[in-house]
Amino acid sequence: MKRAKIISAVIMGGLLSIATGHASSIKIGFNVPLTGFAAADGTSALNGAELAVEQANAAGGINGDTIELIVYDDQASPKEAVPIAQKLIEKDEVVAAISGSYSGSTRAAAGIFQEAGVPYISAYAVHPDITRAGNYVFRTSFVGEVQGRAGAKLIGETLGAKRVVVITLKNDFGKSLAAGLKESASDYGITIVSEYEYGIKDRQFGPIVSKVKSDQPDAIYASGYFFTAGPLVSQLRAAGITVPIIGQEGYDSQKFIDIAGAAAEGTIITTSLNRDSESSETKDFIREFERKTGNKADMVAASAHTAVKVIVAAMRKVGATDKVALRNAIADTSVVAATGTISFNALGEVLKDVQVQIVKDGHWHEHSVISDSKLLAPPNQ
Amino acid sequence: MLYLELFIQGFVQGSIYALIALGLTLVYGLLRILHVAHAALFTLGGYIGVIVTNATGSFTLAMVVAMLVVGFAGMLMYKLAYEPLLSKPPYVSLIASIALFIAAEEIFRIAFGPYGLSYQTPPLQGQIELFSDFYLKYAEILVMGLSVVLLSALAWLSMRTRTGVAWRATVTDPDMARAFGVKIQNVRYLNFFIGSSFAAAAGVLVALLNNLVEPTMGSVPSYKALAIIVLGGLGSIRGTLIAALLLGILESFGTIYIGHLLGRDAIAFAFLILVLMVRPQGLMGGKL
Amino acid sequence: MSYEITLLTTMAISVLFALSLNFITGFCGQISLGHAAFLGAGAYTSAMLSKAGVPFLMTIPAAALCAAVLGAITGLASLRVRHDFLAITTMGVGFLFVGIIRQQDFFGGEIGIAGIPGSGFGKVRFMLICVALAFTFAAFSLYVRRSWMGFVFKSIADNEDVTRVLGIDVSRYKLIAFIIGTGTAGVAGALYAHHFRFIGPDSFGFVESISVLAMVIVGGIGSVWGVIFAAALLSVLPMLVQFIDDYKLLFYSALLFSMMRFSPDGIAGLCTRLSSSISRRTTESDGNKR
Prior knowledge:
The structure holds 3 protein chains of 3 kinds. By secondary structure, chain A is α/β, with parallel strands linked by helices. Chain A has helices at residues 2-19, 39-58, 78-90, 103-116, 144-158, 172-185, 206-215, 226-238, 254-260, 280-293, 299-318, 323-331, and strands spanning 26-32, 67-73, 96-99, 120-122, 137-139, 163-169, 191-198, 219-222, 245-248, 268-271, 335-337, 340-342, 354-360, 363-370. In chain A, a hairpin with a 2-residue loop joins strand 13 (354-360) and strand 14. Chain B is mostly helical. In chain B, 74% of the residues lie in helices and 3% in strands. Chain B contains 11 helices and 2 strands, in the order H-H-H-H-E-E-H-H-H-H-H-H-H. Chain B has helices spanning 2-31, 38-56, 59-82, 90-112, 138-160, 162-172, 174-179, 184-210, 219-232, 237-257, 264-278; strands at 127-131, 134-137. The radius of gyration of chain B is 19 Å and the shape is globular. Chain C has helices at residues 2-27, 36-51, 56-78, 83-103, 122-146, 148-158, 160-165, 170-196, 206-219, 224-240, 248-262, 266-289, and strands spanning 113-114, 198-199. At the B-C interface, helix 4, helix 9 and helix 11 of B face helix 4, helix 9 and helix 11 of C.
């Protein structure tokens, strides 16, 4: 009897969906680096996004329709991202898209999505010009400058350091972070003793380490990704430099700790994911992600997960056919996600607390939270 | 003090470059092929080094295994990829080598994942204090020491043994060497074996210094090594070694003092072009 | 339809770019591993002028000029070196270009130049402009190949010393090849900038130079039709076969390697051999019929 009920329910459901013409899936575009130098972050971001889609579909999708993630590998290259954006819009006809990629490609693609009137969310790319592409572009993570300013407060006020050496990754990510730090440095009594730059392919930092040692700073603000920060921090500590090293969300991965080993202890970063968070959203995400992939959660995965959640929440309100309505719904979002409470200002930027994490006993843990809404106010236009 | 540190770092980096570039110059001297895919063997060496160390706990064993396995891999590369192309124009083997290199990087990514591997317990941590506040890491000492050992062994091999004589003869004049009964095929295999195993050693050492091996770690050494062998004078082993060390030191000082003008990698090529304009045959190259 | 137009535009720009390299490497035998630098020179010139308000069409000659000047300098440098040295030197020029652009905020530094305005012609007419330019240069290439200049080029490619002995000013012809080839690459760069609307130092690196060289070689070094076909195909192949996305680089490099291994004279070579074996078979069978 039970089986007959199930079968008839399925048939009814099938007939119903055919009748109402909702047999097709809802397409969300996703450009992410799966090959090339950023493949590690890209794979993680993809896993985060896929987890969110799975969870949304398990909860009934969008009024019964399944959500489909259309994924293309952009190699973190703007040159690849542009044709991908064009393909997502013109061929796959997605109703919205997310960038799981770095700033270069996100920026390039944002213009294309804006012109086509397709809502586009940058999960974790930090360059300020991304949201300036237009009102269809949003960002669920901090603008580079905001995070830099938070870093200034962290170093000057919380840690009480005065003389700081800045080591900057020579790309838009590193540069916008450094710009934010420098902007607010004097507000917190910080003097920047010197600034050194390095390229994304560098792994040997000997010359910079030696020079920093002779500078004798109170703290070091170093931007980079886990594959540059790991070697850098390891080499700084090996040279006998004991002052605090402050990084940002680019370090936010267990891999950083794997690479730097014992040297990673005590490294502090500004980021969006609090591993010790009391929020059920965050705790659930961390647990489910580890169960799905076998890897520990990191910031890029959490951000991609959040971006999907924002779109799904908006779709549940207004459906997934009218892009203008969808865009407006996203603009009015107020969603609690793994990376905090998300709501956007007029530019599409998010205002939320900065999580400060520290490496303790070989894992990321909560250090403090920065909640200064004036300091953290993102640009408005 | 700073200058001494920069100098030593440059020397260490230069030693690594020397180990990699040597294989490239050996192949070029013998076959006139620009063996770009050589850098893939460097990466393979790094991966094997980390995997074997993590599995067995012995760094020495890892080094030996890496050098042997990659030596054979290099020979295989010659047999399958270069031998069939020997009669074709030089750009054919160059493009084939580049294609091989890209394919190898992709295979590393697919096989070992994009995250890269690290040592579970990094060997040779720690350092010794030479004099007031000047430290030398054990790893750095190993790099310099091992390079000297390997290069001396090579010099001894080529000068003092029959195999070495046969090899030098083949480089100078293959037909004459063949007439004297030298098995050219074996000389070529030996050539690739030695060059590749040195690259593997470099890979293991770099993995030690960075505690990270990644699929793309060979991309910078691939073209930098090319610049080095041209700088040294194509085919000249001595020139390659000098150029390698010189470049290491130049980069070390260059990143600090002219880093805002030129990226670290561009320094190599700026230097190369400068030298070539004055001496088109490279530092120690023979007549063009 | 919109997507197909985008693809066609990309193809046309790649064809123009590849033909420009074919001029230098295929016709004149000067192997260049840094050709993307000239694409970049043209792109940056055009983009910066365009953002300053200069109309798109007027940026094209400026782009060509800038690239050609750089090309002339490279050409002069290349006169002193040959073959493998030349290959590495041109590679060095490529790296130097990117290295310098990266460091100067004037060019946008690492971040590159975004928000490049559209051509002002609309999608379809822009595509037609690109196709027309590619077509024109292809016709020009075919013409040159049959002309005296093409003959000299081929002679230089085959044996430079003999050509010099014959009294021909080899240096002058090499320089001409470089200037024409790089200037045209500059034009392609201007189109590139307005098609992708975003350029950065990474767009013009070593990988780009190798890709375009691969197009020339796969097409058949020196063969205008072969290069057109190969460039058109290889430029959009990754888009068309997205299902192999994760493996696309592997596929691409395997294809390249097989080409070198089994048919180093490219597709053109394949076709020539195929057609001659067919005609041989027909004449043989004719013979047998008698």
